[in-house]
């Protein structure tokens, strides 16, 4: 910002608060473990079918390309109204299904949960993208981390309301959240156009040099109207792929971005790591606790604590990226320690003796949640700085869409492994523990193979993160050499 124009004005502060609340409303997917056991019993679902419902919600969040495209081309008002319609319909659909025999079947549940989460992610993207557009280069990581932390805090907030306000009654919970989300979306549609007026002198996008100043990439891209990229003549003539990194001051075309290897390498790493965090651990948190015979009274506490760490990972990593980037640590480099954390935890749970698992499960889940939340802060910040804020709706939702498919696959495999282990637990097999009358698999053996699968996926993610780190370092060296030769 200029000396005469402060970076933080009342509009920016209000936008940040509204964006964080929209993120809290958009992250109810992670509250699923708080009621998954009740839903499983009420609707007579197997673990595989229960995971299919969760995966449908993750896929709904994953196809956020729909609200992302609406944001890019129609702005925050249309996106807010889209979120209003889908969150209300999804919640009311779930409430209706609860009154039907077997909840109307898994397809009704899955479709309603898909609508709810696709509408929820629309609210999240409205808050996130609007704040990303307004943020200066010096506060990109911080602003992204704060808004993303609201998404991570969502599970703790809605789990608390589910238990203390709605009395663990799913019908009241779904109807109540329909009212809250609808009112929030309507308010956002009215307020955001008034808050998104760009203050003069605030230059968004780009990375920070070591002295804390903005690099040439920090110059504003082509005209932005509520997120829509208006192509310039230079952009329309831009060649594909190779010249993207050689033109840091220009806004790259969508074709250039899609041809860039770094985008797809980051996508692969993100889907591997988050597929483990969401499809294995978060989706099955209550089922894992039940298998290890952890008291039911502890489940909601586990969900809240995991949500706090998800929130902490997003917030802390946002500040870490801004702090370390001027010192030579690229934003994508933080994937190295998050993937390492997933490897250590998955491997530790796979190797731990059965007697120790109930005691180490909560600390392990907290580390997983912190790493998972960190990756959600890294992703939009990396895309924003790497591609100079261009086509953020498309690049963000390529990652969330890929994650939705990854979670769908991981959840199906993990649920099948659980059901297979439950089937094998019989007196004839000489199993030390038997499945209870609800079909739960009891004992550490129910999840050993799933933990092993998570560790292998995280190892592949670490290999991809190393390759991305080398690519980014090489690009920065080339950029520095070209900048030096221009003097």
Question: Could you give a short description of this structure?
Answer:
By secondary structure, this protein is mainly alpha-helical.
List keywords for this structure.
single chain; mainly alpha; MFS_trans_sf; MFS; transmembrane
Task: Explain the overall architecture.
The chain has 487 residues and is mostly helical. The protein has a single domain, classed as Up-down Bundle (Growth Hormone, Chain: A), CATH 1.20.1250. Helices cover 70% and strands 1% of the residues. A two-stranded antiparallel sheet has the order 1-2. A hairpin with a 2-residue loop joins strand 1 and strand 2. The N terminus is likely disordered.
Q: How do the strands and helices of this protein lay out in sequence?
A:
Elements: H1 10-26, H2 32-42, H3 47-62, H4 65-97, H5 106-134, H6 140-164, H7 170-195, E1 224-225, E2 228-229, H8 233-236, H9 254-259, H10 261-282, H11 285-291, H12 299-324, H13 335-351, H14 357-386, H15 392-424, H16 448-485
Antiparallel strand pairs: 1-2
Helix pairs in contact: 1-5, 1-6, 1-7, 3-5, 3-15, 4-5, 4-7, 4-15, 5-6, 5-7, 6-12, 6-14, 10-13, 10-14, 10-15, 10-16, 12-14, 13-14, 13-16, 14-15
């Amino acid at each position: 910002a200029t000396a005469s124009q402060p970076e933080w004005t009342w509009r920016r502060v209000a936008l940040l608060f509204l964006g964080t609340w929209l993120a809290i409303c958009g992250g109810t997917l992670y509250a699923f473990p708080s009621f998954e056991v009740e839903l499983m019993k009420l609707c007579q679902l197997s673990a595989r079918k229960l995971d299919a419902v969760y995966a449908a919600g993750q896929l709904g969040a994953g196809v956020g390309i729909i609200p992302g495209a609406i944001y890019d081309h129609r702005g925050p008002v249309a996106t807010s109204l889209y979120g209003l319609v889908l969150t209300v319909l999804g919640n009311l659909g779930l409430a209706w299904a609860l009154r039907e025999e077997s909840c109307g079947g898994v397809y009704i549940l899955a479709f309603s949960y898909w609508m709810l989460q696709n509408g929820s992610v629309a609210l999240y993207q409205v808050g996130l993208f609007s704040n990303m557009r307004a943020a200066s280069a010096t506060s990109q990581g911080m602003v992204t981390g704060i808004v993303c932390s609201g998404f991570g805090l969502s599970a703790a907030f809605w789990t608390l309301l589910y238990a203390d306000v709605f009395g663990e009654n799913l019908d009241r919970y779904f109807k109540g959240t329909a009212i809250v989300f609808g009112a929030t979306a309507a308010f956002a549609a009215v307020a955001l156009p008034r808050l998104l007026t760009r203050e003069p002198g605030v230059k968004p996008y780009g990375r920070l040099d070591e002295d804390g100043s903005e690099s040439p990439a920090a110059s504003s891209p082509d005209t932005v109207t509520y997120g829509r990229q208006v192509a310039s003549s230079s952009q329309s003539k831009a060649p594909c792929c190779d010249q993207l990194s050689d033109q840091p001051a220009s806004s790259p075309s969508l074709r250039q971005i899609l041809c860039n290897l770094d985008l797809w390498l980051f996508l692969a790493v993100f889907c591997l790591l988050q597929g483990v965090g969401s499809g294995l651990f978060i989706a099955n948190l209550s089922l894992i606790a039940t298998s290890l015979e952890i008291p039911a009274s502890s489940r909601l506490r586990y969900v809240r604590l995991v949500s706090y760490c998800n929130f902490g990972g997003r917030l802390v990593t946002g500040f870490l990226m801004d702090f370390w980037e001027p010192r030579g640590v690229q934003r994508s480099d933080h994937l190295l320690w998050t993937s390492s954390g997933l490897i250590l935890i998955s491997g530790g749970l796979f190797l731990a003796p059965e007697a120790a698992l109930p005691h180490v499960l909560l600390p392990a889940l907290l580390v997983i949640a912190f790493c998972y939340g960190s990756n959600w802060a890294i992703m939009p910040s990396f895309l924003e700085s790497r591609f100079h804020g261009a086509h953020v709706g498309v690049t963000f939702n390529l990652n969330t869409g890929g994650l939705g498919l990854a979670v769908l696959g991981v959840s199906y495999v993990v649920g099948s492994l659980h059901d297979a282990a439950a089937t094998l637990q019989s007196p004839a097999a000489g199993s030390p523990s038997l499945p209870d009358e609800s079909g739960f698999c009891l004992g550490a053996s129910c999840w050993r193979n799933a933990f092993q699968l998570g560790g292998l996926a995280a190892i592949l993610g670490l290999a991809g993160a190393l390759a991305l780190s080398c690519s980014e370092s090489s690009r920065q060296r080339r950029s520095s050499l070209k900048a030096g030769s221009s003097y």
